[in-house]
Amino acid sequence: MRKRKPKKRIINPDPRYNDPLVTQFVNNLMWAGKKSTAFAIFYDALDLVKSRTGEDPYETWKAALNNITPQVEVRSKRIGGSTFQIPTEIRNSRRVSIGMKWLIKYSRLRSGKGMADKLASEIVAASKGEGAGVKKKEDTHRMAEANRAFAHFRR
Predict the structure, then answer these.
(1) Cβ atoms of 41 and 28 closer than 8 Å
(2) Dist. CA 72–CA 148, nearest whole Å
(3) In b/e form, how buried is each residue of 17-38, taking b as 16+ CB within 10 angstroms?
(4) Into which CATH architecture does domain 20-153 fall?
(5) Measured between alpha carbons, how far is 28 from 43 in angstroms, rounded to an integer?
(6) How far apart, in whole angstroms, are the C-alpha atoms of residue 82 and residue 76?
(7) Which residues, 6+ apart, have CB-to-CB distance to 16 below 8 Å?
(8) 27, 12 in Cβ contact below 8 A?
(9) 121: buried, middle or exposed (CB in 10 Å: 19+, 13-18, 0-12)?
(10) Which DSSP string do the residues of the chain spell out, in sequence order?
(11) Exposure string over 61-90, b if 16+ CB within 10 A, otherwise e
(12) Angle, nearest 10°, between helix axes 57-68 and 92-109?
């Protein structure tokens, strides 16, 4: 166990939209410390979203992130020799972090040419309530609902 909780790091806002959430997303998207490349991929993806949908790409991205973000998750807990999947509410910062990671993961798994194209496709699909990330969220919620009987084991 930790003796004390670590301090929350302050994330600087991004240059185009002046939003720390965008910087957090880019930090998750980044590979091998290539932050400028990650920003270029993200902004290219948003430009592609704008050309495909004709809507505000930033709002589309926020909607996509909101549609992927889960509300509950199941956590394993060992009780009396058996392991139970216990549905648990997720705190807000973890909720957003999981949503971002799922959006990036399922973008990478998509077929397409270049990460910006894949990310744009996943953002458009997620904003409409489709795509692999939204399916993952629904599966997580379904699993939590199925294990609702064990909710009384919550810590």
Answers:
(1) no
(2) 11
(3) beeebbbbbbeebbeeeeeeeb
(4) Orthogonal Bundle (1.10)
(5) 15
(6) 10
(7) 22, 43
(8) no
(9) buried
(10) --SSPPPPPPPPPPTTT--HHHHHHHHHH--TT-HHHHHHHHHHHHHHHHHHH-S-HHHHHHHHHHHH--SEEEEEEEETTEEEEEEEEPPHHHHHHHHHHHHHHHHHHS-SSSHHHHHHHHHHHHHTT-SHHHHHHHHHHHHHHHTGGGGGG--
(11) bbbbbebbbbebbbeeeeeeeeebbbbeeb
(12) 110
Bridge-based pairing of strands 72-79 and 82-89 is: antiparallel
Residues in the chain: 155
Question: How many of the other CB atoms lie within 10 Å of CB of 124?
Answer: 21
Cβ atoms 48, 117 nearer than 8 A: yes
User: How do residues 46-59 score in pLDDT, each as one tens digit?
Assistant: 999 999 999 999 99
- pLDDT tens sequence across 38-95: 999 999 999 999 999 999 999 999 999 999 999 998 888 888 888 888 889 999 999 9
